[in-house]
Amino acid sequence: MKISQKLLYLGAFVTSLFYLSWRLIMTIPWHDSWFALIFGVLLWGSELVSSITAFIIISNKHKDFKLEKPEIAPERYPDVDVLIATHNEDPDLLYKTVNACTYMHYSDKSKVHIYVCDDTDRPEVAALAKELGVGYFGLSDNKDAKSGNYNNALNQTSSPLVATFDADMIPYSEFLLETVPYFVEQVEADANDEELDKAPIGLIQTPQSFYNEDIFQYNLFSEDTLPNEQDFFSKGINNFNSACGSAFYTGSNAVLYRKAIDDAGGFPTDTITEDFELGARMNIEGYVNYSTDAPMASGLTPTDLKSVIKQRIRWGRGVIKSSYNVNIFFNPKFSFAQKVVYLNSYLYWWSFFRRMIYILAPILFAAFDIRVVVSNIWLLLLFGFPAYGLTRLAMCDASKEYRTQIWGEIVETIFAPYLTIPFLLEAFGISEKKFKVTKKVSDNSWTLRLYALPYIILWSLSVYGLIRFNDGKFGSELFYGSVISFWLIHHIINLTFAIFCAVGRPSYRAFVRFPVDETINIKVDGWAYQVHVADISETGISFKTDLALYLPKDKDITLYLKSQDYKAKAKGRVVRVISDENEWLYGLHFVSVPESEKREFYQYIYDRINHNLPQVRDPWMSVWDDLLENILRRLPVERREATPYDRMALPKVNVNEIVHIGKEAYKLQYSNYYYMTFVGKLKQDTDEEQELTFDYKGMDVKLDFVSYDKEANKSLYQVTNLASLAKTPQFKQLASEWKGQVA
Fold first, then answer.
1. Which of helix, strand or coil describes residue 60?
2. 549: domain CATH number?
3. pLDDT tens-digit series, residues 544-602
4. In a shared domain, residues 579 and 664
5. How far apart are CA 659 and CA 671, in angstroms?
6. Same-domain status, 600 and 649
7. Could you tell me the pTM of the whole model?
8. Does any domain span residue 347?
């Protein structure tokens, strides 16, 4: 750690200590109303806990720990059971996960035993498992939810290692090769009844990764500047936890040691977050848990606010309940460092209650004259400003890869009105026992906008308080009230983002596109071309070419997809063509994929990281940039009317040739085969709508009048006999000539 960093962290700690001490001794409204006193104490407690969690993160960030993967000979790799949990998910979604599991690399594929664990015992899922050649465990009663599902599978399997995946999590082919080696030595030691010279590993967790935009990226127009909201925990915090051997098990994309599961009592059933609690119980039994750096699987994250809130309520209530179940505060089997890790996790779920306190505190004073802090501007600046400024700088340094402090506060603001009450209920023993699977299919109902109501109320109260508090003040009076005004404006900005997130934005694409940098072959009408793939999804593909290729819009184009590991054939039709800097981008919609090609077709798409989404945040984007971007993107814009050229999925080529129509010579300026643009009027003295025929490069081209642009002096005609022309050798020659003529 650099000396400057040490000084920054020390300064943040010392100033925060002075500030919190001064706040407790001098600023609590001991002599005001009971409400003011209670709220004032809660506000101070919130600041105290926020400081504790901040310094835990800062401390863990700089622990000297690096997880090194052992080099293991292929023949030493042990058997592994791959368990895929499903509960009412769409079989089409499940198909991609199961299929990907069958393609995972391993030294001896016979040692990989894949099972679909279905706790609703659906015949269609059993049929899917049979189709893909994997095992199937069905439960008819959904007893004990996901824990019961996994425990049922464990009772019928025996491999020393267990990999777990959610139904929507698609593993990369390298998953087992990147996780299994950590366990090999202890598997062999247990098999030979030998002692290990280090603590045994309970689980290896790979980061949760998603191939679609999360709700914050998409709804707030940040899909190009911010990584997934969960990356801060999954790629940051959980790696810090590894230094204490307490990386959290997040339920999927992990390999577990079977003996560790057994020693921990199996998957726990008295909680709705069985993953978190199982990892903690492994720690109690003396096992260490680690998280790796690189994602080895990717899945769907929910894309509507209702589903995300439901998901976080389940996670938070489960962690609080499990924290009590394993007694994270006083359990002597946890090391001090592990207690700190679990305490930090517990306190995180209180951040939403704290956020509500922070939002309401200035509103109470400015709008309702309820004083919850007794002080003046000079003392607040003297004690508060150094602590606030240095702590924020320290946190920025600790979390700069994935998010800023302000973005963390925006996320807390979005969740706070909905998560505060459920977590308070859970903390006081009123539990939610039923496991609810989060839907990954977006709900686009207009009723989702009602979720903006709490934010609108808080925003309105903040604006009212700001106006009321500053009304009639001038000069120094504004300065003396600046701290209150600052916090009101701060929360107004955060609540504005929350409103934008709840309102959302239209979604036009059902399937995610993955960027691809590979060359493939295509064929149509006996013509073959080599093109460069730009991106691909389940429903379509885009590719680039230097030439303006004639690809008939009404004919199937055969695409031969090929990567280093996969090859598949599909048919598609052109739906759009775009020119950009002497390069043509063709967009095709898939019309069919042969059943025999389906499995590798999915692998070609999904066995890759979605590089359309950022892995780290853009350091040049501030919250003001994001706010302006959201405002501008939501303003109505005039869209130019589509032209016939736009509606045709063919390249518009720059012809610029003189042609003879009848006795007259005209300049043919543009064409996309279906349409031709001429300079001037073709027939001055006759009806423009009369069909024209002229000889062009040995072909009788028939034209129908479409429009005349008086200002540009250009006439647009449609080619009516293109289908018959396309069959002639003259047309093929013309298509070859026009390849390089970009308009």
1. helix
2. 2.40.10.220
3. 998 888 898 889 999 999 999 999 999 999 999 988 767 889 999 999 999 999 999 99
4. no
5. 13
6. no
7. 0.91
8. no
